[in-house]
């Protein structure tokens, strides 16, 4: 920007100019508020230009600087006085509280200028207002011109560079204080700020054709809500009324993103407007929705309410380069709205994780093809910490997705809470600033501006691959839901809303005034849109969208059961759960193990690391060498990633033999996960001179393996766990995904993620996740925190029935009976072979030999060929399937592995079995550095697998720890019939018990470790207990009685003993452990040790448990 001077003055020197600049800045109100970096940079470059190019008087220099400051001031703070509230409850800015005349944040000086400027009747008066406001030293003539070289970009290519004061203010007002405003001061890079300035200042009204299509989309959104309101007046829908402009906006956004090459968009959104997007964007048949509105779904496939469900669709978008006409071809984009729980914002990190996983699978390294769109409510976006947890992930290397577009549906109210009560900042979008995301504010009653904002956002993401926020400021025409009366607490707002016309009407009038559409045409459009919904409703009423018995069956596990039996997979009578063999040939183990010790030539490693690697190398010397926990983990990771053709150097055996079902990527994140909180993992090695990194696991056989990623995460639990859960969905069984809590108790910061997603999502929405939660757990005398990962919490979420064995609970029976009623109801209550064959064909899509399948089924049920399947036969078949596949019905697995080999197997089992289930895994802390806490290499080898229960009286188990005398080979324990006590336990307490038993040379007490706590291993445990007929039975734990696994184990073990043993009276189960407590542990090491000694003493005491006063260990005096 340079100044036009009418006087010939001598050229001022640089220092003189800077002095004048200072003077001007002190003078100017505007400048006082515009001291941002961008302003200073502009000023500096301008002053340099002046010094070289022009001759100017001090007054002129001063005045020009003030004008520059004004421009900068508008750019910085125009959003505070923009016309954003459709209800115009305040003259400028956004409304904050009923009954307050002025917006709280509006007074930044610009409001006075704008008020006086718009009130001024003539250009003379306007120039006077501006000159007065800026305290100009020179003329205030409306003809006085300033040459604006860079900042104010002409809207039309008029090459206008000379501007009068009224022109400048008018242009700034329109660009920054109208119905579209921007916040850009916090944007990190100057180039990005300039890009935004250009986009804001260069806006045009869209052409007539675009405006017509905007009108159509508004009409669709408007009629949709009206139809639902009139046909289902008593149903909640969380309508979009007051924010209908979202519809044309989001359509423009999707199209623009597709034009930028996006092929897949994952959307996370809350309740507001969701039904409209499901139907109007993603084509959910309104008829299907009508059924949900009336609550007419099938009896037991109702995972969630209608406004939490998801939907996907492939949309065809026109291909059109900016400024060019559309091309004849179309670009496809797959858009999915993720299902979500009521917990607002919980879905946000989940969607981000899904996006990242899909990007990884598609090798979309910069996020060009796959992206996330998150829609938020205003109260939720400003209020919930999860928002900043998710935002913080956006630019972190292991978590970034190439920028997310955020839309805040700002209806300026959250349930009954207004903006002044909901936050401490001007806009609900302010939290977006923490990651340098530009914020676009837009008035929802200006659909053209909403569409423009969406297009700018799409272009921003394509260009800079960073987050951006669009704050669509509207209102909520009705209550929080449609049954809620908002008027009692917001009387003034709702008075204004009552008389405020819907945006469709306002925009329709605008287009009519502009001659783009006639009143008649508008009426015809409205009529035909209404008619379309009426037709859909009629079709629904005629039963067109009703679920058939076949679709019902195919979405139930009973469909899988039928197919399994019809495929001949029956093993009559067997109920023992099959465990996938996850062991590997010794050669493979040694090969991978040695790669975990190989360091590149010339690598200058820390001496501690050299020692660690030396120890590690010895773990692979012979098959009896002992492997520690961290190495077992690396072995599991390293063998999961190997492709089937990978084989050790020099090995001639069949490649991939015994390796995996497939090959998998591995991802582990958590706070300090890369090194490991307990200094155990050391995923990467650092050169102490150069800082160079070496990742052992990614150098086993780089071209024949998948990647192992281990990332330190930001310090939060809910955001990162949500992200990893989403990642596990996106990776869909092709990779191991694990999240590690720093200490297990911190996982409770992510409790909502566990409750809503990890444990419930499969039942709610059919989402299958194999996510592993690693939770360090164990009582080491470190105080109330860090001791307990709260196993009781996770166990209370397990869906296995405490009182019934799998398949026998009343609810399972009801479910089975309901399915049979649905499928056989139409055939008079039973099925013949032909009907069964038709059903099987429906399930398999007509593939396979239906006749043979029916035959197998009939044999399984013991039916004559012409007999009918009755309800009794169906139930028998399903119960048999359920018992055998009990683990497949589980929602969550809870494991406390006590040996490195068990850890290795359970990690490998996660992928080497036919279904995905979340795994909560309690992991060791102090034990990591405990010498006996190792497993022999042969416990990892072919034929071994994860043991759900370890009976240390059996030499065959994969941990032979002290089972035999090392020298004499004599069994350590007495024969089974001489065992007087079976101590059941889980986790590290086994080592305390075992050490004490050895020290005291006790030979008649056996320890049985519950390695998999849930699903409860009824089958194995009962078998083990029956093997010790003379023994007392006790559960021993280190946690207080109301914590740990006790309350979960007790009823289940009692049920199993009652139903699976022949004894008339099942053995009594005793408890040894800490008494109930409010806090998990004592802070005193001395008390901790005293408690532990007492627990161990009782568990091993000679006295019978029945004779002991009570097995609960009292607190030491
Ligand atoms: C974490 C959480 N806390 C509270 C609620 C209860 N609740 C549901 S909607 C709502 C208001 C949300 O307001 P806003 O985010 O502005 O969205 P709007 O409903 O206005 O579109 C509240 C408090 C919830 N669903 N989730």
Automatic annotation (TrEMBL):
Keyword tRNA-binding in record? no
- Keywords for this entry? Oxidoreductase, Thiamine pyrophosphate
Question: Which Pfam families does UniProt cross-reference here?
Answer: E1_dh (PF00676), OxoGdeHyase_C (PF16870), Transket_pyr (PF02779)
Q: Which cofactor does it need?
A: thiamine diphosphate
Transcription regulation listed as a keyword: no
- What range(s) does the Transketolase-like pyrimidine-binding domain occupy? 627-930
Any one GO CC term of this protein is: mitochondrion
Record GO terms (molecular function): oxoglutarate dehydrogenase (succinyl-transferring) activity; thiamine pyrophosphate binding
- SMART domains from the UniProt entry: Transket_pyr
Q: Name one GO biological process term.
A: tricarboxylic acid cycle
Q: Which family does it belong to?
A: Belongs to the alpha-ketoglutarate dehydrogenase family.
Give the protein name, as stated in the record: Transketolase-like pyrimidine-binding domain-containing protein
Q: Which organism is it from?
A: Apatococcus lobatus
